[in-house]
Design brief:
Blueprint lengths: L2 E9 L2 E2 L2 H14 L8 H8 L6 E9 L4 E7 L8 E5 L13 H9 L4 E6 L2 E5 L3 E6 L2 E5 L7 H8 L4 E3 L11 E5 L11 E2 L16
Length: 208
């Protein structure tokens, strides 16, 4: 049976963006013709979590409303380098617990983290959405694999904009950063575009 996950930010005993996580969970059930009875806020309160610091509240669930929870200390990952990888068949429309397709791509890569290209469009890394900086404005690709919670929140608050980002125009951007429910927008935590080890010099130079 398919299993899905929600990874939710908890910092200093406060849960973040729970409404958006609940909405995504409800929509997952609805897509498969099911009804969700799992309530994220109630689960968090029942944990009686009383530790300060940054934590990941992880809920793994199936479409029969069976679930298990964990709350784990969390640290933001830093990466030395990134590699563009092509996969025109990848599909991660729902936040599935099965991450085999990402693991296969990472194992083939020579970098610490990957940036996935689908049908010539920049999408996501193996675990996050992306932001790219151009002329003091942060943009996120229109062509995401998963419409992440932080991505939705930042677009709604107009801190970022959507645009088309492709193999051809990626070098027009100077920096990038990774965002997900645990990684907030942070202009102090960015990478120069040159951290991507196989940036194409010309349109036809990208080989995998």
């Amino acid at each position: 049976m398919s299993r899905f996950i929600e990874s939710i930010k908890v910092e200093d005993q406060k849960i973040f963006l729970a409404e958006l996580h609940q909405k995504r969970m409800n929509e997952t059930f609805s897509h498969f013709g099911k009804s969700c009875t799992i309530d994220i806020k109630s689960l968090f309160l029942n944990l009686e979590h009383d530790e300060d610091g940054l934590y990941k509240f992880r809920i793994e669930y199936d479409l029969e409303n069976n679930f298990k929870t964990q709350i784990l200390p969390h640290a933001i990952s830093e990466h030395d380098d990134f590699e563009l990888v092509i996969d025109n068949e990848i599909d991660y429309s729902f936040k599935s617990a099965d991450r085999t397709q990402f693991q296969i791509l990472k194992e083939k890569s020579g970098a610490e983290e990957i940036i996935i290209i689908k049908e010539n469009q920049i999408t996501d890394t193996s675990y996050s959405n992306l932001l790219f900086l151009k002329d003091k404005t942060w943009f996120t690709p229109k062509t995401y694999l998963l419409n992440g919670i932080m991505r939705q929140s930042l677009l709604a608050s107009k801190k970022i904009k959507e645009t088309e980002i492709t193999i051809e125009n990626i070098k027009e951007f100077s920096h990038f950063q990774l965002i997900n429910a645990l990684n907030d927008f942070d202009e102090m935590f960015i990478y120069p575009i040159e951290k991507i080890i196989n940036l194409p010099k010309e349109e036809t130079d990208l080989e995998f």
